Please model this.
Amino acid sequence: MNKLLRLGLALWMGCIGHALAAPYEIVDETGARLRFDAPPQRVVSLLPSLTETVCALGACARLVGVDRFSNWPPEVRALPQLGGGIDPNIESIVRARPDVVLVSHSGRVGERLRALGLKVVVLEPKNHADVRRVLSTVGQLLGVPGAEAAVWQSIEQGMAQAAAALPENARRARVYIEVSRGPYAAGEASFIGETLARLGVANVVPAALGPFPKLNPEYVVRADPDLIMLANRTMQAEIDYPGWQAMRAVREQRICLFSLDDAEIVVRPGPRMDQAARVMADCLKARAP
Model:
């Protein structure tokens, strides 16, 4: 999202936030109802995609602590790191005196924090629809209902532009995307697979296998993708799975090893999905047969 849009959202958020004086309720993904007398001003986020969502809505200044993996936008790197989603530093979170703590389902820390009297909102986007819904929920929570529309429009426009820029040969490519050594793949059912579909490109891992299945390396050999994308964050370029050296994509070096920054963009379901589409589109334009 461009800086002008972010600035406009921040200014609008401030005006609307002051106008919302009446108490309101937020319902999180566990069905918990949380009452707020005023928009929270001290926010802790324990999931990178939620941190990015808060900032995309113009509320970075309200963050008083984040998990160790939250690193975008750059200003959040100066915030106190309060552990991870599965191993949070409870004492540090309490000392931060948050008005609300944003956590994921997988972190399983919500009940511990609620038992200490903290307000906890559980949210975890897993697909495109979730990203839009989480944007809406966080916007309501922060007192800027409707602000998510501008962010979502920016995401949609960015993905559409990335798709429109692809040449015809790239659209014909069949792609395999690895997100973790194993190999673990991003299938059609994942948010990454949905972004690939928005580009109009085929994924060799069908939705029936789940969002991020662990595959037998032989499966990928049989699938024989035209192009391989590596977003596994290990920065390991060598293809050392059994039989992979015989694949056409490997023999002809039709492989994109994403940088650490680009890999993080690709594997986070949040307001930078338009950038993820551009990263994948750039790979397709450079490497597709």
